[in-house]
Amino acid sequence: MNRKICMALLCLILTNCCLAQEYYIPKTDDSTALAKRMPLLASNVLLNYKTDNDEKTYLNNLFRLQILAGKYSGALKTIASLRNISDADDPGFTNLLCVQHELYAKAKLQQSSSDTGFNKTFTGIFQNLFQGIGDMQAFHISTAFITRNGVAELKNNFMQALANAQQRDSVSISDAIALCRNYYIMVLYQHIQVLAHPLLSADENRRYTIENALIKTQDGATIHAIVVRKKGVTTPQPVVLQYTIYADSSSRRSIIEPAAYGYTGVMAYSRGKGLSTDVIVPFEHDGRDANAVIDWISKQSWCNGKIGMYGGSYNGFTQWAAAKYRHPALKTIVPYVAAIPGQGLPMENNVFITPNYGWNFYVTGNHYLDNKVYNNPQRWQALDSNWYASGAAYRKIDSIDGTPNPLLQKYLKHPAFDKFWQDQVPYKKDFAGINIPVLTFSGYYDDGQISALTYLIEHNKYNPKANHYLIIGPYDHFGAQRGGEAVLRDYAVDPVALISTRNIAFQWLDYILKGGKKPEILKDKINYEVMGANVWKHAPTLQKMADKTLKLYLTAVKKGEYYNLSQKKQATTVTLNQQVDFADRKTSNNDYYPFPIIKKELDHSNGLFFITQPFDKPFSVNGMFSGELKALINKKDMDIGVVLYEVTPKGEYFELSYFLGRASYAGDMSKRVLLHPGKVETIPFSRSRLVSRQLSKGSRLLVVLNINKNSSGQINYGTGKDVSDETIKDAKTPLKIKWYSDSFVNIPVAY
Predict the structure, then answer these.
(1) Domain with 335 in it
(2) How much is the pTM?
(3) Residue at a domain's end among 158, 183, 204
């Protein structure tokens, strides 16, 4: 780029239309040119950026603009002001809010007044800070210096934002601020991340003793465990164990966490993972192996005989798998969004689903994690759509992918929740002997919520005195393990729902293992946030969340696109007809997944839509909806979808819950009972998602009834054969259904 063009662009970026506050963006992606021009853009924006609707937003933007513009002293004052008004956001850590930005600004400021280079200056400031703070504070801020997905992604984000801005002659002040923020965050981590990795590692080694152990099981397998102890502690301590298949050689944070909270921590990996050389077999051995690890820990001199477990998803499963063996040293478990093999994955209510297809490769590809294979959404999305279009049997889906999936093939031999699955977790009367206290976390939009709540329901069923608590709110699978996100799938979450589930978990562990105070939020056994009401409520049981059940009947009375959903059963039973052509792969049925949570419109091209009249007063839907469907079909089976929405007075569709299940397993998940063509069948359903949502006056409830036919799971053609073996050749005759109007749904509500 020649000098005249550069000077012209430099003038443009310094020029703004004052009345409209429009900013001109350089037409270049040259890093050297951007390094000169972006600070000038930040300086220009600062001339007009005086306030924002929200003071925290204003200060957050302001200090970033100031640092980018080279106004480091002003940025440090702004960060101090932000901390002064943020004390309630993160109690105990407010003085470290935005610490990565503070240290960067200080290093740049010192660098400008001395001959010392940035790296040396930053290193000294970093070390001085960490020398003066405690374990919990150091742990809390450690992630601030490492960007989650790498600097390359930050660069891509900025270049995309720049390209979008360059498509216009000028941008607004808000767009200019966003562009500056994207550029600044990229530059920040380009400078500090490479320095932070060894600095954080050195600080951890200063605080803790970290040792590997190889533990033998009774059948001769080897389990790799990592033991983390606080240096200087010589007396036996309570131990917190994490048992996982997610062996990650690059992540030390989860390994350090229990020690930072004041425990001896043990991270143990499933056989075949980490330093173990055994064959990797998810689920099947974990209960016995985890029990062997617990036994080994209990005999170590640094253990005081009290062991607790915590962790999420697969790690939640391993806790229940271990609890089945009731080792006396295991005093409590804290499972987040715990999985149940055979119930939540790889199938839901006996329907094999595709979202976890690539997971088998992720955890078995090597002794750690096969991120390269797993983090390839294009492959898995293409697999789903290609398999759906092909009409091939589900058992042949790996041939569509081109790579054998032996674990899936093993699982497909067990379409019922049979002994293969039952042996992997506590089952029925196994729960009666689990007397340790349990704290469960889950979310209304956790894909695996069914599993997490099945443990709770079965524990209370077989052990009426179970000391089992639940915390649940508007979280997805990962959010429940952190405490939520301010915006979940485009839904603005109530502020009160944003909690630190990690802190609560360790408060619970302190309560059980150290005699500490019970977490404040646990006012009863069931603790749930009411979406839309911005309040936590508490109940002794899941059933007590509601004080009434709305029994709503399907009707044949139609207005526009909707049938009436009525509290009164029609005097005469009538039928509604539905036909599904499984040979048609240009369309899909049953859009059940809640993404986004709030939809502007729904696809009415298939399924039956039943809606109530507007309610004349507000109430909340609290619990799991269920129902009983009566149908006559021309085949031997079908997979049913039922989705529950709130239709707001504004006409938006707020997805509350859904059910997906196979009719032939409706009575017993462990035994298939085929339907009789031409005979009226009663099909109960109950394993839907629990939800709590405040509905306003004028809202309505909408139930969408459909047959599952899409790329996200098996297609049940209704022949009565194993569904995994059915193909599009079995779709010669469409499925014809007569739904009967004495079918109903039960909605648990509270006024």
Answers:
(1) 217-341+424-543
(2) 0.93
(3) 204
